[in-house]
Request: fold
Amino acid sequence: MEERQGWAGPAVELYAGAGVPWRGVSRRLVTARGLVVSAVAVAALAGLVLLAALTGSGLPLWGCGAVLVGWLLALVVVRRQVGAISWAEQPEELVIRRGRLWRTLVSVPYGRLQFADMQSGPLARRLGIARVEVHTGAVHTHAHIPGLPVEEAEALRSRLIERGESQRAGL
Amino acid sequence: MTDAPGAGEQGRAPGTDQQGRALGTEQQDGWRRLHPLSPLLRGGVMVAAAGAWLVSNQLDTLFGNDSELPGGRALALVALAAVLFLLLVVLGSWLSWRVSRFRVGPTSLEVRTGLLFRQHRQVRHDRVQAIDVTRPLLARLVGVSEVRVRAAGTGSDVRLAFLADSQARAVRDRLAALAGRSDELEPAAGDRSGAPGADGRPAATPAPAGLRSRHDSIVRVPAERLVQAALYSGQALSLLAALVLLAASAAVHVGPAVPAIASFVLAVGGRRARQLVREWNFDVARQPDGIRVRHGLTELHTSSIPAHRIQAVQLRQPLLWRLPGWWRVEINVAGVAVGKDGDAVALPVGTRDEALEIVRVVRPATDLRAVRAGLVGGGTDGGYLAAPARARWLAPVVGTRHGAASTGDALLVRSGRLCRVLTVVPHARTQSLTLRQEPFERVLGLASLRLLSTPGPADPWVRHLDAAAATALLNAQVARSSRARALANANGPDFGDSVALRPQT
Reply:
């Protein structure tokens, strides 16, 4: 729990309402996303090295350098992105913030919630995190919170559904 | 939870089916069959398609292209196979007609279909988004129509193809009356709690009775205006340019350019022509609880939309329409397909007053003066919250026209300088809100607010507001929409969507 408090990162100014209990997501999301990025990078590196070995030309090695730089950059971006994700349960709405350069804040009134689901892939399961996604009548709502610890995600999902039922208002 | 009543129905289904078959009646517990000609009509579409395919092949041969069809005896074989195939199709649709039934129940419309894969679908009346009656050319000749009931989910439409015209109208009116119970509390009609009459309409209020006259037409679009409007569009201009180019390249013998330009002309012109055929005879009428839109030259299309099902209304004026002062009105309704253009049109082209009249009918509580003020102009005219002057760095043309104003029951979103746009989003229909800040906006201290609506032509964005103002607007909008929803809930909550059950054989 404490790890997330520390990880919430600097306040995103958008919607900096006083007393909004913003919560961050699990740091393990950095590991998960970092691993995915690294897998791609390692595969690219292996391919390039193989190419260099087969052709004997030095060009692929330059490519290796570029991939390495890209890898490091991606890892930094992943850390910063995950730090920028935060969410809060307000009396009327669920609010999710994300993004550092392109900042987005999504507000979903509980009464508009059509359904909420929880998903976690094999890697996320191993790390014990899950993603909660909220669906409304609008297709472009894109309200999801990635990287919640499984038990917290489960609790959030059932809380959301409960509130959705009590404040429900059709379409 | 929603499955429970359906499961009960499913258990009862075979018994009712057998009874219906044994008695050979059209009506059993209110269950009705579709029109007996429906299988032929559905098959007829296939016949026409096959015919068209054959003809197009023959044309190819005439023009010397390689035909997919061999000649002589092989042709006879192919024709035989085609006839057999068509017979099978007709037989299949006849069987499916035999087992299809529908019923307008007290709480929902129920449809049973399927011979091998039985399907029992229910759409609760309070979940009906819109009701369409379509009459394709072939069906018009026979005097039957297709009724389509739109529910919110994708693929949850119910199609009754086909019903005799009079029956289709009766079913439509009945469903519209049952679905038209508004869940939005409007200041004028506060005593909606009165017990609904036997047919589901509020019995106490006298107003609906007065509006019952079904041909209470608001706007009728004359054909010449439709044609003129089509000519006043960018597409028409590009078409004209292409035609000139075509003539020029033909004159100076630039061979390869001709087919390319010709295909462009055909594609754009064809689109325009199809749109014209669709929007021909456009007629908007007022209904007890909403509007009825009717249009079409060959295929007659009638759509009844309860006013409280309209998620957003968008008024749009392309640049050239400023000359005659015309506007187009489009609406977002959940479950109405977006891809098929024209389904979401409430008025293809009309004067400003006609457009405003439609807004008045579907949003009676909305302040029309604010709407009128938002159609033209920018800045803070008419009490709008506008983008600050520094937004011109990001939107040099639209600039301070980006803005929004809140009336009692809806948010008006103003945008577009050259092609003017004004969107009316009822507070009670706000699905969710997104505040967005791009890097340049951050530098300038701006932010954009997007009101998410169901899929449709309107996608209201209040762009480049001052960041603090945008945040305040978001908070205010959350409060307003929650208040509007609370009123709606006090007025009678509704649950459950259409339920489709597919028991295995």
